[in-house]
Amino acid sequence: MERIIFHIDVNSAFLSWTSVENLRTGRGPDLRLIPAVIGGDQSSRHGIVLAKSIPAKAFGIYTSQPVAQALRLCGDLTVYPPEHELYRRFSRELMAYLKSLTPDVEQLSIDECFLDFTGIAHRYPSPVQAAHSIRDTIYARFGFTVNIGISSNKLLAKMASDFEKPNRVHTLFPSEVPEKMWPLPVGELYMAGRSSVQTLQKLGIRTIGDLAKADPALLRSHLKSHGETLWRYANGLDTSPVAPNPAPAKGIGNSVTLAKDAETRQEAHQVLRNLAESVSARLRKAGQMAGSVCVEMKYADFVSVSHQTQLVTPCRSAKELYRTACGLFDKLWNGAPIRLLGIRASKLTAETEPVQLSLFDPDMKKSEKERRLDKALDAIRSRYGKDAVRRGMPPKSPDS
């Protein structure tokens, strides 16, 4: 039996989920019906657009646009800050519903997933009717809409779900590729980024159909292995399975777009302290130790930079992550206003793996004290919320 794969994608997820919560609690309007965006802060005019309503799109507002620019395009624009805890709750509820239909669900991000329909196809008259039923149930149960793409592989199902929105069901089977996919601009192909598109256009490749008919050797000479991947995708070729159990994470991190640009070292260090606490808690939850730490930064002019270092001994201590991150930051920062900061831990190892101690290790009694403190903080936050307790900020530097 031919595989049938669904790609389910929430329409403008952050804006939709905020709207549903507004209507449920009576705290605000349905943002989907007015010019509105999620992102940044309306009073400070900082941040970027994370999600937009259809009325906002009519003003030329787009995702990733600076909020200040969006406000210039639409003076009556309503701006709501992101509510990540709320979004995680909606995501969990949606995934729980889909997994009640079949365990063969692979979550791709907070608002989209693949569902292998093959094993439950016998329950429905057709895949299209099943998709309509799932879409309608999601709206009736949760109050937001989704697009569902249907195909025999993950790539084409994802491409199909990106067709006309919102609240639509589309098919894109291999036999439909020449008609439905090949006429599209090459930039709409999954994994065709801006740099790749520029290279392809210089080669005279402007549509997905042009790419599908191109010589793979030519693509390889200009884009290396990625050129071959794009050629396969343009021809609708993909054999990857739906993987309900995700592969072990290669890294654990957290970043934040600041409501107000950080302009001093102390402001940036405070943000890094909060990020270090978050990454440390995630490492402990995953039972992992970090062998490398990276700090990423985006300036107010959207220039991005990063710097990383390898740790002498793998750790997950919030204090050690913070100390390392501040050291990296101090080497990296050029003094310009900062819009985004992030910390990422990589080269992960299981906490049960033996660790080779070094002559340069900090005092072991202090390390054990830190581990006990982290454990105590985890217990308090688990019971009373993540903001129930915070560490004090050092007066000058992480080493003071």
From TrEMBL:
UniProt domain UmuC: residue ranges: 5-193
Coiled coil: none
Active-site residues per Swiss-Prot or TrEMBL entry: E112
A cellular component term, taken from the record's GO annotations: cytosol
GO process annotations (BP): DNA repair; DNA-templated DNA replication; error-prone translesion synthesis; SOS response
Highest taxon, organism lineage: Bacteria
Catalysis: reaction(s): DNA(n) + a 2'-deoxyribonucleoside 5'-triphosphate = DNA(n+1) + diphosphate
Cellular localization per UniProt: Cytoplasm
Cofactor note: Binds 2 magnesium ions per subunit.
Keyword vocabulary terms for this entry: Cytoplasm, DNA damage, DNA repair, DNA replication, DNA-binding, DNA-directed DNA polymerase, Magnesium, Metal-binding, Mutator protein, Nucleotidyltransferase, Transferase
One of the Pfam families matching this protein, by short name: IMS
Function noted in UniProt: Poorly processive, error-prone DNA polymerase involved in untargeted mutagenesis. Copies undamaged DNA at stalled replication forks, which arise in vivo from mismatched or misaligned primer ends. These misaligned primers can be extended by PolIV. Exhibits no 3'-5' exonuclease (proofreading) activity. May be involved in translesional synthesis, in conjunction with the beta clamp from PolIII.
Family: Belongs to the DNA polymerase type-Y family.
SUBUNIT field: Monomer.
Protein name: DNA polymerase IV
Record gene name: dinB
